[in-house]
Amino acid sequence: QVQLVESGGGLVQPGGSLRLSCAASGFTFSTSAMAWYRQAPGKQRVMVGTISATGSPLYAYSVKGRFTISRDNAKNTVHLQMNSLKPEDTTVYYCYTSGFWGQGTQVTVSS
Predict the structure, then answer these.
(1) Cα–Cα distance between 75 and 10 in angstroms, integer?
(2) What does the DSSP assignment read for 74-86?
């Protein structure tokens, strides 16, 4: 079955960086688009960025220029490099593909 396991979340100071990873299994990763979403308490889950099967990324306006999505097809892993983090980036981040979600990883940006 499809499994998406996120890791890399944690506490970081404003202006800092974190790298999230999503280990995927149970489907053909190399031909699948992947995405990262985030959801604050009481709010809808929103897209942070996507990456196509061929590696083309798209980003939400709020993170463009600060976040970078990449994929490693040899390791069935997608990454989200987050730089210049702001307190408003604090929330749970989810990996997504084709109707399947990971369990999420908490990112907290605070001094």
Answers:
(1) 23
(2) TTTEEEEEE-S--
Contact 37, 96 (CB under 8 A): yes
26 DSSP assignment: S
- Stated as kind and residue range, the H or E segment containing 17 is none
C-beta separation of 93 from 6 below 8 A: yes
* Residue 85: exposure state from Cβ atoms within 10 A (0-12, 13-18, ≥19): buried
Token pair listed for 16: 């800092």
Cα–Cα dist 44/78, whole Å: 23
Pairwise CA distance, residues 48 & 30, whole Å: 21
Give the CA distances from residue 53 to residues 9, 16, 80, in Å, rounded to whole numbers and listed in that order. Answer: 24, 29, 15
What pLDDT, in 10s, does the model give residues 52-104?
Answer: 999 999 999 999 999 999 999 999 999 999 999 999 999 999 999 999 999 99
